[in-house]
C-alpha cells in the first residue's frame, strides 16, 4: 500500500487536533483514501510542553528545515500562523516540490498571489479550507461544487469571538467591556483581542472569499474594516425594538464589475437565518445566478473543527497524488489568466439604510434641527424612537433611514454633531435588508 508522508509545522492547538485526527481516525482515512497517511515529522519552537496527544519523541524537532528539506516528505501542513516565517516556510516547501495545506488566512490575504504563483510554477497544490470558517467547507463549495455559478454577493459571520460577544450582549443585555472580559476568561478571546474585535481577522477571510467568488484580486488594505468595540448595549436594545440584530458582517458584492468589500457591524432583520447564528458559530451566505441563495453554517474555530478542515485538504491532495495529478483545481477556482483586477467601490459611494442615534438636549426644536440637516443631505427617515429617559447627558433620538449615500450620512452627522444641543458623538450602523 502506498504511503504519503506528512510534515507538520506548528504543534499548537490546531496542530494537536490534526495529530488527533491522524491517530484516532487512521483506519477510516486509509479506507477512504486507499493509502496510508504517515506523520513523519513535527516542527515547533516548543517541543517540551505536554500536549493532549502523545507522539514519539523522535518525531519532534525545533528545526523547520528538517521538514522543508526532507525529500521523503510529500506534503507540509503549515499551522504556525502570522506572516513570517510562515511565508518563507511555505515558499521553501513549494520550491522543494511539496504540496502545502495551510490554515493561515492572514498569510494568504497578504501574500496569496505570490504563493499561488509559486505553486503553479512548481506544479504543486496549496489548499486552505481551514483559513475561512473553521470546519465549514466554504472554500471547496465555491471552488468546486458551485463553480458553475456567477456569484453576485456574499455575506459572512466569520469571527467566533465577535459573534460570541454580540450574542451575549443581545441575550443578556450586558455591555461590551463586561462580555469581552468573560470571553477572555473562557478562552474565546485573546488577552489582546484587537485582531478579532476590530475586524482584522474577518477582513483577511473576506479577501480570500472575494477572490474565490468574483475572480479578482483584492488587497487587504482596500477592505473597509470596522470592529465591534463601539457597539453598546443601548444600540443592541434599540435594534431589537426595530426588529433587527447586530452582527459583525463581512460583505462582498459584485455590481457591474465593481466590488464592494467591507467589514463592519451591521443590522440585519431578526427573522433572517444569519441573525440566528449565535455564539462561536460562523456562517456564509452566497447568492449565485443559478443556485440562488445558499447558506453554510458550522463551527468557525476550535481544535476539532479546524483540524477537520485541514485533514479534508490533506485527503483531497493525497487523492490527486495517487492519480499522478496536481493543479487539477486552480487555487482560487479560476485559471490565473482569467483573474481580473476589478475596481473596489469607495465607501463614500456605498448606498445603504442606516440606524442613527443622537444624544440631545430635551428641549423644543431639537428634532427639527436634526431633521433639517438630514433633509439637506437627502436622508429621509422611515421610523423613529425617542425615549423620555436621559442617557449620558442627553435624551436619545433613534432613527432608521431609507437608502442613503455613505458620504451624505457622514457629512450630515458631522454637521449635527456640531450643534450645541447635541451632547455626544452621534452613532450610526449600516443596515442590510436585502441579503442578495
UniProtKB/TrEMBL annotation:
Its EC number is 1.1.1.3. SUPFAM superfamilies: ACT-like, Glyceraldehyde-3-phosphate dehydrogenase-like, C-terminal domain, NAD(P)-binding Rossmann-fold domains. Gene3D superfamilies: 3.30.70.260, Dihydrodipicolinate Reductase, domain 2, NAD(P)-binding Rossmann-like Domain. One of its GO terms (biological process) is threonine biosynthetic process. Residues 355-430 form the ACT domain. Pathway: Amino-acid biosynthesis; L-methionine biosynthesis via de novo pathway; L-homoserine from L-aspartate: step 3/3; Amino-acid biosynthesis; L-threonine biosynthesis; L-threonine from L-aspartate: step 3/5. GO terms for molecular function: homoserine dehydrogenase activity; metal ion binding; NADP binding. The active site is at 205 (proton donor). NADPH binds at residue 105. InterPro entries: ACT-like_dom_sf, ACT_dom, Asp/hSer_DH_NAD-bd, HDH, HDH_cat, HDH_CS, NAD(P)-bd_dom_sf. It catalyses: L-homoserine + NADP(+) = L-aspartate 4-semialdehyde + NADPH + H(+). It comes from the Bacteria. Pfam families: ACT, Homoserine_dh, NAD_binding_3. L-homoserine binds at residue 190. NADP(+) binds at residues 9-16. Its cofactor is a metal cation. Keywords: Amino-acid biosynthesis, Metal-binding, Methionine biosynthesis, NAD, NADP, Oxidoreductase, Threonine biosynthesis. Belongs to the homoserine dehydrogenase family. This is Homoserine dehydrogenase.
Amino acid at each position: 500500500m502506498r504511503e504519503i508522508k506528512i510534515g507538520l509545522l506548528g504543534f499548537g492547538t490546531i496542530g494537536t487536533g490534526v495529530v488527533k485526527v491522524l491517530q484516532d481516525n487512521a483506519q477510516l482515512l486509509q479506507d477512504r483514501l486507499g493509502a496510508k497517511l504517515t506523520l513523519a515529522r513535527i516542527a515547533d519552537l516548543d517541543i517540551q510542553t505536554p500536549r493532549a496527544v502523545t507522539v514519539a519523541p523522535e518525531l519532534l524537532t525545533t528545526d523547520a528545515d528538517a521538514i522543508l528539506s526532507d525529500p521523503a516528505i510529500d506534503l507540509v501542513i503549515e499551522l504556525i500562523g502570522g506572516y513570517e516565517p510562515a511565508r518563507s516556510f511555505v515558499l521553501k516547501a513549494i520550491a522543494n516540490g511539496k504540496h502545502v495545506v495551510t490554515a493561515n488566512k492572514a498569510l494568504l490575504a497578504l501574500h496569496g498571489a505570490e504563493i499561488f504563483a509559486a505553486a503553479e510554477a512548481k506544479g504543486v497544490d496549496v489548499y486552505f479550507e481551514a483559513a475561512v470558517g473553521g470546519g465549514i467547507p466554504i472554500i471547496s463549495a465555491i471552488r468546486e461544487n458551485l463553480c458553475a455559478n456567477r456569484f453576485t454577493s456574499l455575506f459572512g459571520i466569520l469571527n467566533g469571538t465577535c459573534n460570541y460577544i454580540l450574542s451575549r450582549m443581545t441575550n443578556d443585555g450586558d455591555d461590551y467591556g463586561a462580555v469581552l472580559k468573560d470571553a477572555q476568561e473562557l478562552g474565546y478571546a485573546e488577552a489582546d483581542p484587537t485582531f478579532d474585535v476590530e475586524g482584522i481577522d474577518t477582513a483577511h477571510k473576506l479577501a480570500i472569499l472575494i477572490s474565490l467568488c468574483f475572480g479578482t484580486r483584492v488587497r487587504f488594505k482596500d477592505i473597509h474594516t470596522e470592529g465591534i468595540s463601539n457597539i453598546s448595549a443601548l444600540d443592541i436594545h434599540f435594534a431589537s425594538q426595530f426588529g433587527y440584530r447586530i452582527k459583525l458582517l463581512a460583505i462582498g458584492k459584485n455590481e457591474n464589475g465593481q466590488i464592494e468589500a467591507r467589514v463592519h457591524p451591521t443590522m440585519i432583520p431578526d427573522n433572517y437565518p444569519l441573525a440566528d447564528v449565535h455564539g462561536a458559530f460562523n456562517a456564509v451566505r452566497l447568492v449565485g445566478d443559478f443556485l440562488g441563495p445558499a447558506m453554510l453554517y458550522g463551527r468557525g474555530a476550535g481544535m476539532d473543527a479546524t483540524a477537520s478542515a485541514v485533514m479534508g485538504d490533506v485527503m483531497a491532495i493525497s487523492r490527486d497524488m495517487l492519480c499522478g495529478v496536481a493543479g487539477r483545481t486552480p487555487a482560487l477556482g479560476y485559471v490565473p489568466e482569467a483573474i481580473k483586477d476589478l475596481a473596489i467601490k469607495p465607501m463614500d459611494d456605498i448606498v445603504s439604510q442606516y440606524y442613527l442615534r443622537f444624544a440631545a438636549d430635551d428641549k423644543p426644536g431639537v428634532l427639527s434641527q436634526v431633521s433639517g440637516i438630514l433633509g439637506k443631505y437627502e436622508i429621509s427617515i422611515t421610523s423613529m424612537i425617542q425615549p423620555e429617559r436621559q442617557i449620558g447627558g442627553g435624551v436619545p433620538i433613534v432613527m432608521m433611514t431609507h437608502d442613503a449615500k455613505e458620504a451624505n450620512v457622514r457629512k450630515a452627522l458631522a454637521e449635527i454633531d456640531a450643534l450645541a444641543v447635541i451632547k455626544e458623538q452621534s452613532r450610526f450602523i449600516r443596515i442590510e435588508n436585502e441579503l442578495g
